[in-house]
Specification:
544 residues, alpha/beta, FAD/NAD(P)-binding domain, Cholesterol Oxidase, domain 2, 22% strand, globular
Length: 544
């Protein structure tokens, strides 16, 4: 059994910066475990390659929810990254920190050190904003953040139309003003995806004190009493145990982290007993508080100059591919959405509770295949619910680590959530009907002119709505009885074990969750080093 000072479970958005931060000290022997394969694939590095990764069999966990009664008993597909970089290696690369009030509310829920003024230095430290540094932005960190290399005329017009219907313009969603409409930034550098792995681990992969293992699926965390001492792992078909002399940091993501805890005997006793798992530490909140950004996607047939569909469809996609191979420029170098808007569904909302995303292109998902760009010119607009009132659960399907957990998100089960989303659909239509966008629209295709009343909009959402794949909250931070970790991310009731990923969020941030997940990892590394747990005296055996 090999011993390390620190073992990090999951090389994703949070795990990678943790590995970087802990291994900065050459005296720390660090192990970073990843269940998936390496990320050295062409489509991982290519921004537009996310379309090829959505259903990828090797780089994606390919999860499904259980049937959802409120969504006409549909099952929903949930892709999650299963490779170095985690979901930051397959996502749309949008860089949104969240609203100041998101973090202040975390602090006010009993988590000192997590207010906006507390986390801002970490956001600044981690990023290399190509615009340069200012009061809110950093320019010397490892994570590259850039503007779209090509801004379509229709994207500019969407911003103008949004302003005409009362949405103010903002030049930087991550600066002084979060709410409003403007261009998105992405984690892209020189036309290539810049994942958490690319930014934080790849440059230091050759450190003698850092070991990165792929193809290693964690089976459970080993406990001696209430002390986390090691990790049991299935590596290349063989079970092995790695021993932690100092700490174990669980960063497997909002769907896998609660599962690993429960398989290790940490969780709701009744749930563990149901699967024949001995309860080592009663923690009733593990797997509860599952939150996600529900969204619906609209599609508009457009004038040819409004869309780059025709540049990526048919034979032209091969020409565009050759252009990208030679220059790393062109449409394949673009992130998912060019323009975003953060708006309130009601005047009395303290800040935006809806996110709107505009794409000067449209696509079709082929389940079991890939995401394919449509042949005819089109524009896509989506609306996301940022602060859902309904929460779901992650529970065990069995005691077998190879079985995925059971995911029940409970979308559209709260009347206020439903009302806000209906408002969002109407707001999209208002923007697209205002000039200059109205001149670019030939017809609304999805949901289509037949969907008019609130009841019809709700039915359409029930039939077609999806997850934005921004799950969080399942190992929440706090002080109440359902809090799984404290403000230092230490698992309550367990020594030498922390959770650090989006699962610790008491509630979701207002926007895409990759940036705050990376921040959590950067901050977690600092906390682990500050607390400086002494090395344990390692025995010859590890407890079951």
């Amino acid at each position: 059994m090999e011993t390390y000072d620190y073992i990090i479970i999951g090389a994703g958005s949070a795990g990678c910066p943790i590995a970087r931060g802990l291994s900065d000290n050459p005296d720390n022997k660090v192990l970073l475990l990843e269940a998936g394969p390496p990320a050295d694939r062409f489509w991982v590095n290519t921004p537009a390659g996310m379309a090829k990764l959505y259903f990828h069999k090797d780089l994606n966990w390919n999860y499904f929810t259980d049937p959802m009664p409120a969504l006409r008993n549909r099952k929903m597909y949930w892709p999650r990254g299963k490779t170095l970089g985690g979901s930051s290696s397959i996502n749309g690369m949008i860089f949104i920190r969240g609203h100041r009030s998101d973090f202040d509310s975390w602090r006010d829920l009993g988590n000192p050190g997590w207010g906006y003024d507390d986390v801002l230095p970490y956001f600044k430290r981690m990023e290399h904003n190509e615009r340069g540094a200012d009061e809110y932005r950093g320019a010397t960190g490892p994570l590259w953040v850039s503007d779209p290399v090509k801004k379509m005329a229709s994207s500019h017009d969407f911003i103008e139309s949004a302003e005409r219907v009362g949405i103010p313009r903002t030049d930087d969603f991550n600066g002084a003003v979060h709410d409003g409409v403007g261009f998105m930034q992405h984690t892209i550098r020189d036309g290539k995806r810049y994942s958490a792995y690319t930014a934080f681990v790849e440059p230091v992969r050759n450190r003698q004190n850092l070991t990165v293992l792929t193809g290693c699926a964690v089976q459970r965390i080993v406990l001696e009493g209430n002390v986390a001492t090691g990790v049991e792992v299935l590596c290349n078909g063989e079970i092995t145990t790695f021993v932690a002399a100092r700490e174990i940091i669980l960063s497997a993501g909002s769907l896998n982290s609660p599962q690993v805890l429960m398989l290790s005997g940490i969780g709701p006793g009744e749930e563990l007993q149901r699967h024949g798992i001995r309860t080592r530490v009663e923690s009733p909140g593990v797997g509860l508080n599952l939150q996600d950004h529900f969204y619906v996607h609209g599609s508009y047939k457009s004038t040819p100059d409004s869309s780059y569909n025709t540049e990526l469809a048919g034979l032209r996609k091969y020409l565009e591919g050759a252009r990208y191979l030679l220059t790393h420029k062109g449409y394949l170098a673009l992130g998912s959405s060019q323009v975003g808007a953060f708006v309130k569904s009601r005047a009395d909302e303290p800040y935006a509770d809806l996110q709107i995303s505009f794409r000067p292109m449209t696509f079709t998902y082929h389940p079991g295949g890939e995401c394919e760009v449509d042949n005819e010119p089109g524009m896509g607009v989506s609306v996301y619910l940022l602060r859902p009132r309904a929460a779901g659960t992650v529970t065990l399907r069995s005691a077998n680590p190879a079985d995925s957990a059971v995911f029940k998100p409970n979308f559209l089960t709260n009347e206020d959530d439903n009302r806000a989303m209906i408002f969002g659909v109407k707001k999209i239509r208002e923007i697209m009907s205002a000039q200059p966008m109205a001149s670019r629209v030939i017809e609304e295709q999805i949901p289509g002119p037949a969907v008019k009343t609130d009841e019809q909009i709700l039915y359409w959402m029930e039939m077609t709505g999806n997850s934005a794949h921004h799950q969080g909250g399942t190992c929440k931070m706090g002080r109440d009885r359902l809090a799984v970790v404290d403000e230092r991310l230490r698992v309550r009731g367990v020594e030498r074990l922390r959770v650090a990923d989006a699962s610790i969020m008491p509630h979701l941030t207002s926007g895409n969750t990759n940036a705050p997940s990376i921040m959590i990892g950067v901050k977690a590394a600092d906390m682990v080093l500050q607390d400086a747990t002494p090395r344990r005296l390692i025995k010859d055996t590890v407890a079951a």
